[in-house]
Design brief:
Distance between the termini: 91 Å
Structural class: alpha/beta
Radius of gyration: 31 Å
Number of helices: 20
Length: 647
C-alpha cells in the first residue's frame, strides 16, 4: 500500500515535509483544513502555512534534532469554526537511515475532547463559586435573621400605640427583606442543583435576573425593554433550570451586541402553555449556523470564550420539561430565542407573602427543642415560638441538649445545620438513639435545594426553614406537626413525611476513573432533573465520599486501577455506614459470569456500556424508589417494636 493510498483513507491531517521543511505530500483532510491543493502547495515551506507559533517552533526543532514532538494547536476550520489538533511530529528519511531527514506531520482532531475538558474546568469553577456563595449567604443571613426577628417583635409592641414609629420600622423591615432577596437571588443563580418542577411565575425569574445583570447590560450600552404579559399564568418547571436557560439566552444576546443595542424580553400566554422570548438587535445568525446552533460543542465564539455546550444544555433542559426552544433570525436585524413551557395546574406561591404581615393565627400547644449556636438567633426562635403558644427549651450547643434530652419530652426539634463541633446532621443522628420518634426540622442559611442529603429514608425529617425566617414560616411546620400529632403520642405519620420525601432529589455518587465519562454522567443526570450527582475518580475516594455523604445510589465502574469495582463493592458492603446503599455496577463486559460476580459482590443492578442516556435516569429512579421504600418499612417496623407493650 502506498503512502498516498494509506493517507487518503485516514481522517487524520497528514503532511510530509522534506529536510528543508517543504511540503512533499498531504492528504485531503490536510488540504481542506489548510486550504491547500497539492499541485500548488508542493515545495511550499511550512512557515508559509499560517501554522500556530508553538507548532512552527516544534516543526523546526524536529527538523534540526530529529526528536519526536507533540503539540496541541487550534486551526481556523471551515466556516470559522475552530478545530483543535493533537499534532505528532516524527522524523522520516528516504532512504531509511539517510543523514538528512524530513518530518511526518500527523494531526488528530480532538475538538470535541478539548471542548469537553474546557467545559469541565468551567464547571469546576462554577462549583467553587456556588460553594463560596453558600458560605456568603450563611454569614449574611444569620445577622439578617436577628434584625428581622427583632423588628417583628418591636412592630408587634408599637403597631397600635405608636403608628409613626411603626411606619418607620416597617420601612426598615422592607429594606431588610430586599437584602434577603438579593442574597437569595445571587445564590440561586450561582447554583445549578435541580429542585424539581413546581408552579413558577416566569416574570419573577426575569426580574430576578435583570436585577443582577442590569448594571452589566447598561455598561455595555444595552437598553432593556420588558414586554411581560400582566396576567401570565404559572408554568410547571424547575425554577433553577429556567434561570439557567434564561441567563444563557440573555448573556448570548449581550454578546451578539458588542457595541450596544436593544434587548427585549417578552412573554405571552397560550391555551396550554406560556411563551417567553429574548430578542436582540445584533447582526443576526447565518442560515448555516442556525442549523447547528443547538448542537453540542458548536460555537461561533473565539477560543476560550465558549464551549458550545450552553445552548445544547438549554435545549435539553427545556425538553425535559416537555417544552420547546427555537430561534428565528434575520441578518442585519437581530435574533429572537423563544421557549415554550407548559402551564401549571396549580398557582405559584406569592413570594411577597412571606414578608407580609397577617393576623396572628391560633395558638398551638407544642413542646419544642431549639438548638442554634447563635444566641441572638436562638432568642428570635424562642420569641416566635412562645408567641405561637409553644413551650421552648433552647440550647446553643448540641452536646448540652443531648445530655438533658429525655425520650418523649418534645413534639418537635428545630436544629441549626451549621454549628461548630457538632453540626445539625450529627445532632439529628444522635437524637435518633435517644428519642427515635422525635420529628426534626432543620434551620439553614443556604438554599433549600442544596439540602437533598436530608432524605436518608428517615420519615421523621420533615424539612427545612430558610434563614432569615418569619413567624409565618415557622407556623407552617408547627401547624403540620400539630395536625399530624396522634392523640396521646408523638411522632410524624406518613401523611406528613411522604410528600416531602417524594419532592427531594436523588443523590447519586458515580465512581469511575474516566474523567470524560464522569463529566458526561453528571451532565446527563442533572439535566434530567431531580438528581444531585457527586463524582470520584478512584475507588477509595468513592468509599470515603459514600461514608460522608450517604448517597441514594452508587454507580460503580468495574474496571478501575489499584482497587477495582468488585473489591470496592465488597468494601462498601462491609462498612456499616454504607452497607445498605444500593450499588449499580457499570461495565463493558456482557458475559453472564461477570454479572454474577457483580451481584455476588453486593451490587443490586448491572448496567452494560454503552449506557442508554434516555433510560438511565428512569432506571436510577426505580432503584432508589425501591430502596427508599425498604428503608421506610424497616423504620416503621422499628418504631412499632419500640412502641409495642412489653409482656
Amino acid at each position: 500500500m502506498t503512502f498516498d493510498t494509506l493517507a487518503n483513507s485516514l481522517q487524520n491531517c497528514l503532511l510530509l515535509l522534506d529536510e528543508a521543511g517543504g511540503i512533499v505530500r498531504l492528504n485531503p483532510v490536510a488540504e481542506e483544513l489548510l486550504g491547500l491543493q497539492l499541485k500548488g502547495a508542493k515545495g511550499r515551506s511550512y512557515r508559509d502555512l499560517g501554522l500556530p507559533e508553538p507548532l512552527v517552533a516544534a516543526v523546526c526543532r524536529c527538523l534540526i534534532g530529529g526528536e519526536p514532538e507533540a503539540v496541541l494547536a487550534e486551526f481556523p476550520g471551515p466556516g470559522g469554526q475552530g478545530v483543535w489538533l493533537d499534532v505528532r511530529l516524527t522524523a522520516w528519511a528516504e532512504p531509511a537511515g539517510a543523514a538528512r531527514h524530513g518530518v511526518l506531520f500527523n494531526g488528530i482532531d480532538v475538538t470535541a475532547a478539548h471542548a469537553l475538558q474546557t467545559a469541565w474546568v468551567r464547571s469546576s469553577k462554577l462549583a467553587s463559586l456556588g460553594t463560596m456563595a453558600a458560605a456568603l449567604a450563611h454569614e449574611i443571613n444569620n445577622p439578617l435573621t436577628v434584625v428581622l426577628g427583632t423588628l417583628d417583635v418591636l412592630l408587634a409592641e408599637v403597631e397600635a400605640s405608636q403608628p409613626e414609629l411603626a411606619a418607620t420600622l416597617r420601612r426598615i423591615e422592607r429594606g431588610s427583606w430586599q437584602c434577603v432577596e438579593i442574597v437569595r437571588t445571587f445564590l440561586k443563580v450561582s447554583r445549578t442543583q435541580p429542585v424539581g418542577a413546581r408552579p413558577v411565575l416566569l416574570g419573577e425569574i426575569v426580574n430576578d435576573l435583570l436585577t443582577l445583570l442590569g448594571k452589566q447590560l447598561a455598561t455595555a450600552s444595552i437598553d432593556v425593554a420588558l414586554e411581560l404579559h400582566t396576567d401570565l399564568p404559572a408554568v410547571s418547571a424547575d425554577p433553577t433550570h429556567v434561570q439557567q436557560v434564561l441567563l444563557n439566552l440573555i448573556l448570548n444576546a449581550r454578546d451578539a451586541m458588542p457595541t450596544g443595542g436593544r434587548l427585549v424580553v417578552r412573554s405571552r400566554p397560550e391555551p396550554s402553555s406560556v411563551v417567553l422570548e429574548v430578542q436582540d438587535s445584533g447582526s443576526g445568525i447565518p442560515e448555516d449556523v442556525m442549523k447547528r446552533i443547538f448542537d453540542p460543542f458548536f460555537t461561533t465564539k473565539p477560543s476560550g470564550r465558549g464551549t458550545g455546550l450552553g445552548l445544547s444544555i438549554c435545549k435539553s433542559l427545556i425538553e425535559e420539561h416537555r417544552g420547546q426552544i427555537w430561534v428565528s433570525s434575520k441578518l442585519g436585524a437581530g435574533s429572537t430565542f423563544s421557549i415554550r413551557l407548559m402551564r401549571s395546574d396549580a398557582a405559584a406561591d406569592d413570594p411577597a407573602a412571606s414578608s407580609g404581615r397577617r393576623q396572628r393565627p391560633d395558638r398551638v400547644d407544642l413542646r419544642i427543642l431549639a438548638i442554634d449556636d447563635e444566641p441572638d438567633i436562638l432568642h428570635v426562635l424562642k420569641t416566635y415560638l412562645t408567641r405561637a403558644g409553644c413551650s421552648v427549651s433552647g440550647f446553643t450547643s448540641g452536646a448540652e441538649a443531648l445530655e438533658r434530652l429525655v425520650p418523649g419530652q418534645y413534639d418537635l426539634a428545630l436544629l441549626d445545620l451549621q454549628m461548630p463541633k457538632m453540626n445539625g446532621r450529627e445532632v439529628r443522628r444522635r437524637l435518633r438513639g435517644i428519642d427515635p420518634a422525635l420529628p426534626v426540622v432543620f434551620v439553614t442559611g443556604t438554599l433549600l435545594q442544596d439540602l437533598d442529603f436530608i432524605d436518608d429514608g428517615d420519615p421523621l425529617i420533615l424539612g427545612c426553614v430558610q434563614k432569615p425566617f418569619s413567624d409565618r414560616d415557622l407556623r407552617t411546620w408547627l401547624d403540620r406537626v400539630s395536625r399530624s400529632r396522634p392523640a396521646g403520642g408523638l411522632g410524624a405519620p406518613d401523611a406528613v413525611s411522604a410528600p416531602a420525601a417524594a419532592e427531594r432529589a436523588c443523590r447519586v455518587l458515580v465512581i469511575d476513573d474516566d474523567q470524560a465519562l464522569l463529566f458526561l454522567m453528571k451532565q446527563l443526570l442533572e439535566a434530567a432533573g431531580q438528581f444531585h450527582v457527586e463524582v470520584a475518580e478512584t475507588a477509595m475516594d468513592g468509599i470515603r465520599m459514600a461514608k460522608e455523604q450517604q448517597p441514594d445510589l452508587i454507580l460503580l465502574d468495574v474496571m478501575m486501577p489499584v482497587v477495582d469495582g468488585l473489591e470496592a463493592c465488597r468494601l462498601l458492603r462491609a462498612e456499616p455506614a454504607t452497607a445498605r446503599i444500593p450499588i449499580c455496577m457499570i461495565s463493558a463486559k456482557s458475559d453472564l459470569a461477570d454479572v454474577v460476580k457483580a451481584l455476588s459482590a453486593g451490587a443490586v443492578h448491572y448496567l452494560m456500556k454503552p449506557i442508554d442516556p434516555l433510560g438511565l435516569p428512569k432506571k436510577i429512579r426505580e432503584i432508589v424508589a425501591e430502596s427508599r421504600g425498604l428503608r421506610a418499612n424497616r423504620h416503621r417496623a422499628s418504631l412499632a417494636e419500640q412502641r409495642a407493650p412489653s409482656d
